[in-house]
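Key result, reporting period 2: structure in, sequence out.
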């Protein structure tokens, strides 16, 4: 069976599950257009996930991809966290605000979220995808026994092999060009920073399961290129941010449409994990800051979101988590279904 048949889609196109940006309306529009729409539930709880899935299903009966975060739960370090909050305090005060008294674990990892597992097994979306690693064999078995197709992200051949061995049916090859959080399993380990083309080709050669290319792909020419390299499909995230159905705020959309799109950086300062973002005032804070000075994900994100909220309240949108890949200047503002149609024309 081909990957498209396994996923229940007509086109080799997947809209990336960008937590906070990929809305149920976007996922439904993409799926109705014949591609695979996705939502990210790593930033919500089981009840939130149920509501999002229901919202998609109210608009579409096509396949849906639900993405979960499989990060290692953080170890609290009160000294480190106090020092980070103290470092951010002057920036909060500039907006007449104070940093949080302490940092909270705002996102629960799927590795230990039994309620989320139960919600997914009950809702049975066509696809569940993993980011930041893999859950236990028991969780993978429960999802597969429910008839759910599983995808796992990989930034290296070793991660790809591990995902295939664990029982996922396809691997998403996330190149270093990709926007948003780097999917590395161990954020403190050496990262070879493989680009999408090299990583895709290596995984196609090494694995016996399909490979989905992701990172820097913005148009049909990019999709055609990775298919030529042996990928079974392409996953695009930044390409969909400017769509009216996305949940990107006005500041993010304005930045994406400006010269800022030509300048993306990888930073840990916003969330505690490496992520590619449009260069802005928050990413500038990480200049000269060692990784060891930043609290673990998602603890650091608690401060990052609080600072962005304080800045936005004062009319400054330059402190947002404006996750975007290196292909950002190629983004187009059009309805998601129209974008899928344009991608197909360009690809063919």
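The corresponding designed sequence is given below.
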């Amino acid at each position: 069976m081909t990957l498209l048949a396994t996923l229940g889609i007509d086109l080799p196109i997947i809209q990336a599950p960008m937590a906070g940006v990929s809305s149920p309306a976007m996922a439904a529009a993409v799926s109705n257009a014949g591609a695979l729409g996705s939502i990210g539930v790593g930033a919500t709880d089981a009840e939130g996930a149920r509501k999002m899935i229901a919202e998609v299903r109210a608009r579409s009966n096509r396949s849906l991809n639900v993405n979960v975060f499989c990060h290692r739960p953080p170890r609290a370090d009160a000294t480190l966290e106090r020092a980070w909050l103290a470092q951010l305090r002057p920036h909060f005060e500039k907006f007449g605000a104070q940093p949080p008294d302490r940092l909270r674990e705002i996102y629960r990892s799927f590795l230990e979220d039994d309620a989320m597992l139960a919600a997914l097994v009950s809702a049975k979306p066509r696809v569940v995808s993993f980011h930041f690693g893999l859950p236990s064999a028991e969780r993978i078995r429960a999802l597969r026994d429910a008839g759910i197709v599983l995808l796992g992200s990989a930034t290296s051949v070793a991660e790809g092999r591990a995902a295939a061995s664990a029982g996922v049916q396809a691997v998403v090859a996330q190149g270093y060009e990709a926007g948003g959080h780097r999917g590395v399993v161990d954020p403190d380990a050496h990262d070879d920073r493989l680009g999408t083309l090299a990583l895709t080709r290596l995984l196609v050669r090494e694995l016996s399961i399909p490979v989905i290319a992701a990172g820097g792909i913005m148009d049909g020419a990019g999709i055609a290129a990775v298919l030529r390299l042996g990928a079974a499909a392409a996953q695009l995230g930044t390409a969909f941010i400017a769509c009216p159905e996305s949940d990107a705020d006005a500041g993010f959309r304005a930045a994406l449409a400006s010269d800022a799109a030509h300048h993306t950086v990888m930073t840990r300062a916003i969330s505690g994990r490496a992520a590619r973002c449009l260069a802005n005032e928050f990413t500038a804070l990480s200049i000269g800051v060692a990784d060891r000075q930043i609290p673990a994900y998602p603890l650091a994100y608690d401060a990052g979101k609080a600072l962005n909220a304080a800045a936005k309240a004062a009319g400054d949108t330059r402190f947002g988590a404006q996750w975007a890949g290196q292909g950002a200047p190629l983004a187009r503002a059009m309805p998601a279904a129209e974008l899928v149609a344009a991608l197909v024309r360009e690809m063919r």
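The chain has a mean pLDDT of 97. The domain at 1-73+109-248+331-348 is CATH 3.20.20.70 (TIM Barrel). This case is discussed further under Risks and Mitigation.
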